[in-house]
Amino acid sequence: MTFRRGGRFVLGLAGLAALSGAIPAGASSPAPSPTPGPTSPPTAAEAALQQQANALEQQIMSLQLQSAPLLYDAGQAQQRAAAAQAQLAQEQLALANANVVLEQTTAHLGGVRAQLAADREQLAAIVLTMYEATRSNTVLTELANSKDLGQTVDALVSYSQITDSMTTLVQSVRADTDRLAHLQSAQQEQERQIQLQADAVQAQQDQALQDEAMYQRQAAKLTGPAAQLTAQLQGVLTNLAAAEGQQVEKATLDGLASGILDGALPPFAFGPRPDDFAWGQCTWYVASLVSVTWGGDAWTWISAAAAQNKPEGMTPKPGAIVVWSPGGGGSSSIGHVAFVETVVSPTSFIIDEANWQGLGVVDKRLVPTLAGVEGFIYPT
C-alpha cells in the first residue's frame, strides 16, 4: 500500500523495507496495526507534482551515483597530497640537518687544511735552515767542535728528530685532510640523495593535487546540476504540500489517537519489544526496519549497541545502521541514524532514512563521505 507522509506519497514501511532489502532473510514482515482509515485519493494536480518529484529524485540520485566515485577519488588524492606534504616536511628537515652537518665538516676541513699549510711552511723552513747550515758547513763545524762522539751523535739525532717529527706531523695532518675530504664528499652525496627524494615527494604531491583538482572539476559537472535539481525538487515538494494542505511539522505521536496519522501506520518493529521511539523521528524509522533493542537519542546508539555487544565498525555495509554524532554530517544536536541500503565506495553509500527533510518524511539519499559519522552498527 502507499500512504502520504510529510506531504509526499511514499511506499509504506513494509514496502520500503522489501524494496531496499531491509527485511532480513527469515524475518517476518511487521504486522499491520488495526485497519487504518482510508486516505483520500490524490487530485490530478497532486499526482502530477508527485510524478515530477519522483522524476527529479531519480535524476538527482543518478547524478549522485556518478559523482560519488569521483568525489571518493578526489578525497583519496587529497589524502595522498597530505601524506606527501608530511613526508616532504620530513625530507626537508633531514636536508636541513644534513646541511648543518656538512657545514660543520666543511668548516673543520678548512681549519685542518689551514693547519696543514702552516705545518708545511714550518717543515719547509726547517729543511731550508738545515740546507743552509749544511751548505755553510755550520753542521760540520758543530760536529768538529764536539768534545766527544756523544755530542756529535746528539747533534745529528737532534736535526733528524726535528725533521722526522715535522714529517710525521705533516703526514698526520694530510691524513686528516683526506679523511675529512672523503667525509665531505659522502655528506654531499647524502645531501644530494635527500634532495632527490624531496624532489620526488614534491612531484608526488603536485600530481596528487592535480588529480584532486581534476576529480573535483569532473564531480562539479555532476554535483552542480544535482544541486539545481534539488532546488527544483524542494519547490515541487513545497507546492505539493500546499496542494495537500498538510503541515507535517505539527504531526506528533500524540496525534495518533485513532491509530493512524494521515494514513501512516503507527510505530512497529521487528525486535522483541515495541518501537517506542517518537513517531516520525529517524530513530523510529530505523527501528522499524531492523531490530533495535536499545533506546536513546540517535548519537547514543553506538555506545548503547556496544553495551549489548553488537558488532560495530567504520566500514559501510548493506543492512548496517549508520550513526552520526551531534552536528555531524549536517545532523541536529542529537545526531542522526539511518539504514544503509547500498554501498557505493568505501566512504560513500545510499541510505534509507526519516526526518531528514521533515518529521515523518522518508527519503533516500547518497552520503558521499564519512565526515561526522560516529560509526556503523551491524545488526545480527
Could you write a compact summary of the structure shown?
With 380 residues, the chain is an alpha+beta fold.
Question: Can you walk me through this structure?
Answer:
This protein is of the alpha+beta class and 380 residues long. It folds into two domains: 42-245, Orthogonal Bundle (Helix Hairpins), CATH 1.10.287.2610; 250-380, endopeptidase fold (from Nostoc punctiforme). Helix content is 57%, strand content 11%. It contains six helices and eight strands. The protein has helices spanning 13-20, 44-135, 138-144, 149-244, 282-289, 301-307; strands spanning 2-5, 8-11, 312-313, 321-324, 336-345, 348-354, 362-367, 373-377. The strands form two sheets. The protein has a six-stranded antiparallel beta sheet. A two-stranded antiparallel ribbon has the order 1-2. α3 packs across α4. The radius of gyration is 42 Å and the shape is elongated. It starts with a strand and ends with a strand. Residues 1-39 and 247-273 have low confidence and may be disordered.
